[in-house]
Specification:
The protein is α+β, with helices and mostly antiparallel strands. It is 16% helix and 47% strand. The chain contains two helices and 13 strands; from the N terminus they run βββββββββββαββα. The longest helix has 26 residues, at 175-200.
Length: 201
């Protein structure tokens, strides 16, 4: 059964005290599976999700951020770029960190640790070591499209890390205002979408 991560219609922009800007989420570990026609056997991998904290939204049990570019570097293989839109979610109530395929609304990597109960995806975090096999990857990380072919992967012994871009010194004095501006821009976008929805119904 596909594990879905449907968020519903009531997405809300997260306003945090963090500076709105680039953030990189990484999942590392050991992989077995296939990439195209080639076998992956006990190979080190790194999934890298480039995103922006301005894109963080909340849902009923946590927060989610859609990546702009997502790659996977598997030892012995060319760097592969996912061709679907990918995302990272933190289901805070269930203490889960999730790497997912946003295009198909499915979880690909999912691990549970108390460290994720309060993480909002908006700041540097970790590394958080996650031991054992990722059972969700074994059942759901199958035939995911990349520019190097379809990827099927079972992950184990993972580590999650988030690294936000440091604020330039010239912007430090504007930090609080930038956070407010980021929220206002996002909220304005939400209002425009809602108004458009009303006028077209």
């Amino acid at each position: 059964m596909k594990l879905s991560r449907k968020l519903g219609a009531g997405l809300i922009l997260i306003a945090t005290t963090a500076f709105c800007g680039p953030i990189t989420y990484t999942f590392t570990g050991t992989a077995n599976g296939t990439l195209g026609l080639d076998q992956i056997v006990d190979a080190a991998f790194t999934v890298t999700v480039l995103a922006d904290t301005a894109s963080i939204v909340s849902f009923g049990s946590g927060v989610r951020n859609v990546g702009t570019i997502t790659t996977i570097d598997i030892s012995g293989f060319p760097l592969a770029t996912f061709t679907d839109v990918m995302d990272v979610a933190d289901n805070q109530s269930s203490e889960e960190i999730v790497f997912g395929d946003d295009t198909t609304d499915s979880a690909l990597l999912l691990r549970v640790d108390p460290a994720f109960a309060g993480y909002d995806l908006a700041a540097s975090y970790g590394p958080i070591s996650l031991h054992g096999e990722d059972t969700v990857s074994a059942s759901q990380f199958q035939n995911i499209p990349t520019d190097q072919g379809l990827l099927t992967l079972t992950a184990s012994e993972e580590t999650f890390t988030a690294l936000s871009a440091p604020e330039p010194a010239s912007t430090l004095l504007l930090l609080s205002g930038a956070g407010l501006l980021c929220f206002c821009i996002g909220a304005g976008g939400l209002r425009r979408r809602r108004m458009k929805r009303v006028t077209t119904n």
